[in-house]
Design a protein that fits this description.
The chain is an alpha/beta fold. About 45% of the residues lie in helices and about 15% in strands. A five-stranded parallel beta sheet has the order 2-1-3-4-5, with helices on one face. A two-stranded parallel sheet has the order 6-7. Helix 1 crosses helix 2, helix 1 crosses helix 3 and helix 6 packs across helix 7.
Length: about 240
């Protein structure tokens, strides 16, 4: 005869049927490495068979955590429909996947006012446990102000060893130097730098370019073309006009 389906309402029922402790059941639902794969699968199989699911909202209340991380797309305004969006959406997708494997939700937020208080309210009101900023925007005074609060956050952008907050990003200065070294090898004498130097990433690339020219004793003329955003369309239009 097929197993009789019973209504299970507590984790104790799952533990009794799986012949394990309640703590083990809890760890299995959290995908903890402390539970052997075979045991974890047995527990999850029993839960599925009897229609049991974890009340995550109740768990959040018990732990005083939302298990949610806010992601703020603090990027330049995009004027064209086909902006560099594919890159940024890939970045956002990677963040989402990283949170998913850790059983965390993602709260996508539009940039709020550049002041620490707005983000302090976000955390104190339990909308999220922490914040990831994608981009620093033109200037980072507001981020330095935020670093003096108890708000947990990390920034994807220009890495500065002297910064008061945690940043993850590429080596922009080295990228600029590599470009400069290539121009030196090709004997170029007139170079155009397209970007918005009010953004830390752009300024680091510009400094790297200049450093490479200086180290090589190259006196190439560098012309700066400032653009309001980082779209392909804007860059193309600026160069066409130049």
């Amino acid at each position: 005869m097929p197993a009789r389906k019973i209504d299970l309402t507590t984790m104790d029922d799952i533990a009794r049927l799986a012949k394990v402790s309640k703590a083990t059941v809890s760890r299995a639902f959290k995908d903890s490495p402390m539970v052997k794969p075979a045991t974890k699968e047995r527990i999850l199989s029993i839960a599925r068979r009897h229609g049991y699911s974890v009340n995550w909202n109740a768990q959040k209340l018990r732990t005083n955590r939302t298990n949610t991380v806010a992601v703020v797309m603090h990027l330049p305004p995009q004027s064209g429909e086909h902006a560099a969006a594919p890159f940024f959406f890939q970045l956002l997708n990677d963040v989402a996947r990283g949170l998913w494997v850790r059983r965390h939700d993602l709260l996508l937020c539009s940039p709020e006012a550049d002041d620490a208080y707005s983000y302090e309210v976000m955390i104190s009101s339990k909308r999220a446990d922490g914040i990831i900023f994608l981009g620093q925007g033109p200037g980072d005074k507001w981020l330095r102000d935020l670093a003096r609060t108890r708000v947990p956050f990390v920034v994807w952008g220009a890495v500065d060893a002297h910064s008061s907050y945690c940043t993850v990003g590429s080596d922009n200065e080295k990228g600029g130097m590599l470009a400069g070294q290539r121009f030196v090898e090709l004997g170029r004498e007139r170079i155009v730098f397209v970007g918005n130097r009010s953004h830390p990433e752009m300024e680091q690339r510009r400094q790297g370019l200049q450093a490479a020219l200086r180290l090589a004793g190259n006196e190439a003329e560098v012309t700066d073309i400032e653009i309001p955003d980082f779209t392909f369309e804007t860059g193309y239009s600026a160069m066409a006009a130049f």
